[in-house]
């Protein structure tokens, strides 16, 4: 299984540098938790990783093969869950999900959708139109996409927003299972999502001009191991 | 079913369940044309002479109505990001959405046009060519419109901006569309006009999805 890594990544939004010189590396089964205050570039980094946003500088690739050289292969390996739930109000939950599964190339999208909704603990919403779903149900439906259309790398932008405690626990289990099968997860969060053995990436370390403010004692220490893990 | 057809089917299903887009476009088309006898007066000769132009101008305006929403809802609910990350090339996605838009708004115009031609006392010799020009022309309107819809995504008052951007580009379609009908009515061959229309369609078919996809990539960035 290949390694997903980025080096020297610099991201520009509007005319503001969000982060510079960012490095990361995710091995199969790995998890990367993006930490940092609001506006530190967590969402931007996830969008860069997904390929929605082009980095100003730096490279991103699988086993050294740049994403820019083979964007199709990259897209086939990635599932992105952003802030927006992409739920059509007039389609039922199952139809919404089956469409994305079919677009990803699932052989039997309807069956995939049903199974994914079961796994997320919401089989009863399958026939409910999107407009009648609560925020938490829409979020579960969006997360069900990860199961209905399997991909190696999950990019999750604050995935637990609007989820209740039970759903968060359920979702932690799904992440653990995905990683046990060799999948990779990158997520940003403000709540705690248990990712045993995952690495933390503090984005404020890569803020431009951070060196001048904080001195240079941080150089070369991009990663912090999260020690405790069962 | 291929990914392309899945997307066409989804958009058709969305339009049919929401129900409004198709009926609004064709109702607007009919009303727009029906207003002319009231404004110009019910003189049959005058109406017969302006019929081709009136029907074509009304078709242009009707196809503009729902264009603004071509990518808008997908953009707002995050579907566009997922579409651009899906294995389906974004160019094909633009073409699929444009095809669905044409099926929903363009085809009803083609069906309604002969009735309006009767209403305006158009010479019966022009009916066949009218349907033919609209069949060639309305897909061009949807394709060019798709570029405008992609470019104005996220803009405030995008609909007005879209009209200003797109209407000038519709002029060649209008000239050759109305010209072909006039030629047929006056006993000339409409062939050159039809060939030019077909040429524009052949050019728009690959170019519009390509330009639209480029604009969409900017919009989701």
TrEMBL record, chain A:
It comes from the Bacteria. Residues 4-230 form the ABC transporter domain. GO terms for molecular function: ATP binding. Residues 210-230 have a biased composition (Acidic residues). Keywords: ATP-binding, Cytochrome c-type biogenesis, Membrane, Nucleotide-binding, Translocase, Transport. The keyword Repressor does not apply. The keyword Glycosyltransferase does not apply. Residues 208-230 are annotated as: Disordered. This is Heme ABC exporter ATP-binding protein CcmA. The lineage of its organism: Bacteria, Pseudomonadati, Pseudomonadota, Alphaproteobacteria, Rhodospirillales.
Automatic annotation (TrEMBL), chain B:
It is a multi-pass membrane protein. Keywords: Cell inner membrane, Cell membrane, Cytochrome c-type biogenesis, Membrane, Transmembrane, Transmembrane helix, Transport. Pfam families: CcmB. The chain crosses the membrane at residues 21-40, 46-67, 99-120, 126-153, 160-181, 193-216. Its main location: membrane. It is found in: Cell inner membrane. It comes from the Bacteria. Required for the export of heme to the periplasm for the biogenesis of c-type cytochromes. Belongs to the CcmB/CycW/HelB family. This is Heme exporter protein B. The gene is ccmB.
């Amino acid at each position: 299984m290949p390694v997903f890594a980025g080096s020297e990544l610099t991201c520009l939004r509007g005319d503001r540098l969000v982060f510079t010189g960012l490095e990361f590396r995710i091995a199969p089964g790995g998890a990367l938790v993006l930490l940092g205050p609001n506006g530190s570039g967590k969402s931007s980094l996830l969008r860069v990783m997904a390929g929605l946003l082009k980095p100003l500088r730096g490279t991103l690739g699988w086993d050294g093969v740049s994403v820019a050289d083979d964007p199709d292969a990259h897209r086939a390996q990635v599932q992105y869950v952003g802030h927006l739930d992409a739920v059509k109000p007039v389609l039922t939950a199952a139809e919404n999900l089956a469409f994305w599964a079919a677009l990803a190339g699932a052989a039997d999208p309807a069956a995939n959708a049903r199974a994914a909704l079961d796994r997320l603990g919401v089989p009863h919403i399958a026939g409910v139109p999107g407009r009648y779903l609560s925020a938490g149900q829409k979020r579960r439906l969006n997360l069900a996409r990860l199961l209905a259309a399997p991909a190696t790398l999950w990019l999750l932008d604050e995935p637990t927003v609007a989820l209740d405690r039970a759903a968060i626990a359920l979702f932690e289990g799904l992440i653990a299972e995905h990683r046990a099968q060799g999948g990779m997860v990158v997520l940003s969060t403000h709540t705690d999502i248990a990712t045993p053995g995952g690495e933390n990436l503090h984005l404020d370390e890569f803020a431009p001009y951070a060196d001048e403010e904080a001195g240079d004692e941080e150089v070369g220490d991009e990663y912090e191991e999260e020690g405790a893990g069962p | 079913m291929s990914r392309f057809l899945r997307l066409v089917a989804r958009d058709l299903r969305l339009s049919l369940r929401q129900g409004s887009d198709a009926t609004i476009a064709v109702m607007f088309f009919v009303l727009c044309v029906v207003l002319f006898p009231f404004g110009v007066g019910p003189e049959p000769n005058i109406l017969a002479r302006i019929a081709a132009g009136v029907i074509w101008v009304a078709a242009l305006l009707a196809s503009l109505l729902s264009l603004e929403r071509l990518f808008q809802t997908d953009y707002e609910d995050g579907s566009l990001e997922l579409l651009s990350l899906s294995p389906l090339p974004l160019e094909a996605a633009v073409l699929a959405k444009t095809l669905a838009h044409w099926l929903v708004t363009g085809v009803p115009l083609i069906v309604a046009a002969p009735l309006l031609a009767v209403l305006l006392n158009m010479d019966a010799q022009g009916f066949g060519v009218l349907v033919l020009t609209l069949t060639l022309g309305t897909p061009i309107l949807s394709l060019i419109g798709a570029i405008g819809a992609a470019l104005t995504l996220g803009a405030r008052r995008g609909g007005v901006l879209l009209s200003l951007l797109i209407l000038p580009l519709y002029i060649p379609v209008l000239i050759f569309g109305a010209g072909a009908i006039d030629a047929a009515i006056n006993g000339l061959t409409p062939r050159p006009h039809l060939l030019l229309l077909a040429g524009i369609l052949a050019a728009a078919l690959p170019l519009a999805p390509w330009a639209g996809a480029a604009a969409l990539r900017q919009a989701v960035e």
